[in-house]
Each structure stands twice: as structure tokens, then as C-alpha cells.
Structure prediction request, 374 residues.
Amino acid sequence: MPRAPQRSETMSIARLAKHLGLSEGTVSRALNNYPDIADKTIARVRKAADELGYRPSTTARRLARGVVETIGFVLPARHGHQIDPFLAEILDGLATELALSDWDLLVAAVPEGHDEVEVMDRLIRSGKVGGFVIARTRRHDPRIDYLRKSHIPFVVQGRTEDCDDYAWLDIDNEKAFVDAMDHLVGLGHRKIAYLGGDPDLNYAWQRRSGYLSAAKTHGCDVLDGYLHDGITDEMAARHAVADLLKHPDRPTAILCVTDAVAIGAIHALAHAGITVGEEISVIGFDGLPMGEAIHPGLTTMSQASYQVGRAVGRIVVAQANETKEANAPASEFSQILWEATLTIRGSANPPAPKPVTNANPASMPVTNAKGGIS
Prediction:
């Protein structure tokens, strides 16, 4: 009877096969659950593998299955290459979920002079990825048009306007901003300004639509100068707030497309000597940790960004495995809509009462010459 290999020895399929008295092919097929191997043999091989500490080679497993177990994520091109805290949360959750399935995450940046489709095409042609996760979708997105034709598995964090034929997970952005407006109106605000993002981005368009819809429902006038599109960073938020503070009918609240924009607005208001949460209220969207760290804490419509990343990771791995097993594109797609939740902190409160001015002199008490009241 052959001597059982010690755990300290490097365990391989060849050593495992010799120990069991089986061929290497039988052992390999048993470890990969091939249907032509008897259940009894599969159980015997797996038991020996566990006892002897055999760990399959990731490269060998991938070659055997014919699956490139790497998901690509191309960072959306942004002017100035600013760090997007929302995308950082998504990537954290995505990387965690892929690691639990022994898949890898490849994050690629867009070189100067190139676009995201070029980068995705290069990754597919080089055989480096077995699927993609897409984020920050445009209303009409050329990346999704390209991936539809590529027949590679992909999942979208977000949606386009035409989203029936691919997998996506999105937040109900329009409802979230209706809810945020409902909250501000419930506090007593009627003069509510909006700092919006790039309206070509679908999430920004949906949030803008929610703001306008709720303003109409509540009879809140969106005055000229109240709505600012294209606010994508803190500096743009500061300039927009400066304009709002000059408005002849200054708003009592500002609703912001993201937490990053809201934090920029809070800094601008504080710099101008405005007490946030008393003189002007601010609400953001994302629920990022930094919103809790500032003063006052940011009231926000929270989405579970990390959990979104985890969820899209599960979906894309399942889709890639299904596509490989069926040797064809998936026939059904996961399409999931989550809701944001209101997180109340100190940045949003009822509007400050107006000071009493121009009181009627006839109604005011008069002091007579002797110091009495007449």
C-alpha cells in the first residue's frame, strides 16, 4: 500500500492520483464534478483531497473550465480625474464578492485620448476578462451598445433608457428625490433649489426628474436660478451656492444630486457665514460615511453602495457561469430596483422664522415723559 503523502509535501493531482491508485484524468474530473464520474468516486477523491490538503491551482482550474474568472471594471472617464467616493464603495463591495467566488477584479483606467469602449474592446480581445460590470450609465450609453454585440456577460450598476435586454441593478432615483422633496416640504420649505449633475447621466436625469415632479406636486415654484445642472464636484458646488446666495428670493433649502456635491455646498455656505440647518438646509444622496463626519451631519438619501457592489458581483458571476454552461448568452436577465432610505441628520430642519419688520407704530407701546407706558 503506498505511503500517504505528508501535508508538508506539495500536493498535486499527480500525487493525489498516485495515493488513490487512480488516473490523473479521473481525479481531475472527479474534483470538477464531471457527470461521467461515479458519485462514490467523487466522494472518495474529495475526501482524500481534504485530508491531504490538496488545493487546486487557480490557473489550471480556469483552463479546465474554459472560463476567464476575471471581471473587468473600466473607470468612467472624468474631467480632472477626481476620485468618485461612490464608485470606491461599489468597487470595495464588488472586489469582496468576487474574491469569495475565487474570481478576480481587473480595474482599468481610460488613457488620455481614448474612450471606455476602446479599453473594453482591448480587454476582450486580449482574453483578460470573462465579463464586465458597468457603472455611471448615460441615458444612451455606447458601452452597453458595444457589450450587447460582444456576447460577453455584463451587469450594469444603473440603467439606460432602453434597458430591457441586459442585467442591471439600480436605485429608484426618481422616487428618492420625490421622497427628499416630500421631507423638505414637510419641514415647511417651499423655496428649494437643486444642484444637479450631468443630465446625460441617467441617474442624474432621474434625480432631476424627481425634484421637478415633486416641486410641481407641492406647488413649489422652481424660480430662475434655482436649478443648476452639471455640478459634478465641490468647486462647481461652491460656485453654484455663491449664485444662489445672490438670488433676490434666496432658497431656504438646497437638494443635491450626490453627497459629494452636498458637502461642497455645506462648505460654501459655512464660508459665507450661513448656518447650515438653520438658515439654509441641505440634503444629499448616497449615504457615504463622510456625510456623518462633517458638521452638521448631512441628511441624505442613503443607498447601500457597498451592498450594491456585492450584489452586482454575485449577478455577474452567476451570469458568466450560466453562459459557459449553456454555451450561449443568458436568456433571462436579473433586473433589480432598490429604494434609497432617508437618513436624517443636522443639515436639514424647518426654515428659520422670518424676523418681524415694519411693525405698525400705532400698535407699539409709547413711553410718556414720566417714564410710564401710555
DSSP finds 13 helices and twelve strands in the chain. The first strand starts at residue 70 and ends at 74. Confidence is low (pLDDT under 50) at residues 4-9, 361-374.
